[in-house]
Model the fold of this input.
Amino acid sequence: MIELLAVGIRATWKLKMQTFNANIQDRILVLVKSILEQNAIAVEVNPESRLVDVGLTSMDMVNLMLGVESEFDFTIPQSQITPENFQSVKALERMIGAQLKLGTAT
Done:
């Protein structure tokens, strides 16, 4: 009985985390698409798309960083402002999710 309860709790937690991550991903996609629209760039963006390949410049990346900080209401630590974390929506999602979890743990 306890094992079934534990399995149910894990399944519920996994579903909540998937929803949490999907929400982060959707919000990042909106930010990226907004920047592209401002630059009159019409291109399909998916979570794995390399942001430089879809048309974001270094200045756009700065705007994206500021947009992320505003959208998610936290300051990105200097150590997390790396090319790897801004490579794709998926990479940003991982970094933001980790930072938000750190913020709730304190």
